[in-house]
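User: Predict the full complex structure for these chains.
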Amino acid sequence: MDTKTVRIGLVGFGTVGSGVARILQENGRDIADQTGIRLELACVVDKDITTPRVVSLAPGVLTDDLQRLLDDKSIDIVIELVGGTTFARDLVLKILGAGKHVVTANKALLAEHGGEMYRAALAVGRCIAFEASCCGGIPIVSALRTGLAANDISGLYGIFNGTCNYILSEMTGSGAAFDDVLKAAQQKGFAEADPTLDIDGTDTAHKLAILAALAFGCRVEMEDISIEGIQNVQIEDIRYAREMGYVLKLLAVGEKDADGRVSLRVHPSFLSQGTPLADVGGPFNAVSVFGNAVGNVMFYGRGAGMMATASAVVADIIDIALGTSERLFERMPMVTERRKPANFKKIGDIQSRFYIRIMAKDQPGVFARYGRILGKHSISISGAMQHEGAGPENTVPVIITTHPTRQKNMTAALKELQSPDILLGTPVCIHILDIPEDKE
Amino acid sequence: MDTKTVRIGLVGFGTVGSGVARILQENGRDIADQTGIRLELACVVDKDITTPRVVSLAPGVLTDDLQRLLDDKSIDIVIELVGGTTFARDLVLKILGAGKHVVTANKALLAEHGGEMYRAALAVGRCIAFEASCCGGIPIVSALRTGLAANDISGLYGIFNGTCNYILSEMTGSGAAFDDVLKAAQQKGFAEADPTLDIDGTDTAHKLAILAALAFGCRVEMEDISIEGIQNVQIEDIRYAREMGYVLKLLAVGEKDADGRVSLRVHPSFLSQGTPLADVGGPFNAVSVFGNAVGNVMFYGRGAGMMATASAVVADIIDIALGTSERLFERMPMVTERRKPANFKKIGDIQSRFYIRIMAKDQPGVFARYGRILGKHSISISGAMQHEGAGPENTVPVIITTHPTRQKNMTAALKELQSPDILLGTPVCIHILDIPEDKE
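Assistant: Here is the predicted structure of the two-chain assembly.
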């Protein structure tokens, strides 16, 4: 039983980078026992080479000279952990240019410049591994690539952004408004100083682009995904829907219908209380996959954080060192040019149930008007709720839930509803998602 | 991008075997696209070659002549799906003797004859793959082997037996007694005609032996696992504990303490309502893993069934065809002779909370006697409940829950409690399991 030593480079010695160094120090011997690969952190590049980190490196390993890393022929794999998409893009191209494999956790980079990166990797016969880019330490990329490869996948539902899930969980638990919860989350370190990419759904969409490509075997560009964030979520709607048995989550949804048409979207979604994804709280992530053989499989874990992300980075290094990643890379749907483009369904064509809140004028005949307008657009009401007590300008909140209907029907109905003589302001409209049940 | 053809043999053309054939027919092209491996089912051996199955094979593929399969040098991988441990043992040795890799879903075979099988495989440089032996289609073997390889694992908690989970879920839901629910489960096909190995915990222990070896990096024999089944579970206890916020599950528990001592056990366990494993209902399986880097990761899915198991079998074939399994096989903790034996903790030494039900004589001073006896054995009461209303022979059920204590203290206390002047019959004692929470 030979043990092979693999020399690793790392660029970006921040939180996750320190986590990787710590894993290699603390668990390196067990990893070598289990895989036959001794991982040696040979060179760490960061512009800051003086601030002490939670781990200390062997003398001479830390440097601010990227070229030293690129020139070191003994280093075969480089971990990119610098973040952003500008310097990171150049960096990855340089690493590949130096003939080294790349491990990255940078979903924004892959979602925005993936095509260019993958072509560059193919050109030099190297691979890019990105388990850490989606759902922290959950081995979901590996599961879709091989563990579930026997399956034709019809559905992928996920909670991919810990910040949003934390905010929505806190709003649900405390009844506080979005802005207040966001502020508290920032103070606790659960939200970034600039949380835009998290709360507007972009980060969730970046991850959906990667996982949907793997699940449905197609290339996915950001414009193929319909995105709606949580920035406009109002606490009233969380409260009303809760009375009706629903919990609000920012969900990534990928579905393939019987005709092979793929629908990809990110939006706030009401899920039935007590269903597995509805119960995922706080900063956790979860992915629920439906395969034609395996049925429903769900994965749950920490979506981010120093050590969870580092765990996935090290898993990627092991897969590269074993040769698995290299062998599968050129066939990954986002990499190969051979896959025919997917047939994406327009968002207007998807079927969904909806939750609508209308600030209704409290006068005779108003409810009947709503019913007529919805009926005209073939929308069938599944539930309705009106609490007694007045809102502003003699209005009352009316909640209506619908049976499944096409989104474009709902859009048309909402436009027609928007008449100042029967309601105040704009109706609130949120998807209700019935995740298929896996029954005998 | 070359596509390599791998010729597969299959012995045992029953439910799961038919599922494998169906996956290769329906999803074979996608599998080839994604992995570069065209899987060809070249020879299927079964003693029944006439009964029609849900899939039809190409002419000449089905045979009752095992020797034909063994002699076919073009077949590199053979799937063993015959079940049992006698014929299956001989069969696996023959397949290995013919120089072929083995894929099996047979956990009983591995738990009882694993050592012999693994040595035989090592001797001929072939491997045995067994993703399908644990938790159906959930890729948990692969996750422990590589996806979570960066982690030092401290805890593994699982619901591994769909029959038991179905029975306990039904008892909880309907309030019916064990025997009635078992009978109904047999009629619905959720329990075998002879369900002994399921309900007595043996099947769960077989799977724990495999997964604990991978998680904790040690060999595990069946005698290292303390096993208690669900055959004596009474509906009253499910009902009383539910009032106190607990749900009953048959749980496999693997824990490693700070000193590296490993405790392995299978027993009915009360879990707090609303925690992830407590919510796993019906015939589903789940595995919750705690790693020092990744924190808590949970996997959930169908634990058995034709297609879910077949999904895992095909995943194993892919891993062998890619070379991953072969490369890692000789280092697997159950295979290598190099790992030092684990330091197992005796069941008496584990710490646990307990639920006790005593049919108490309804007379003054009795409760104080219980308290004194428990206190004498250093057992601290965490909760108590006594409903009004009489049981048989002027008794009332008294429920006591305890703080963590050593199991041997509880055993000693139970012995002393067993005094006919203060209670009727034998106290019921069930573990309460507080699965660690993964918090920031």
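Chain B has a mean pLDDT of 94.
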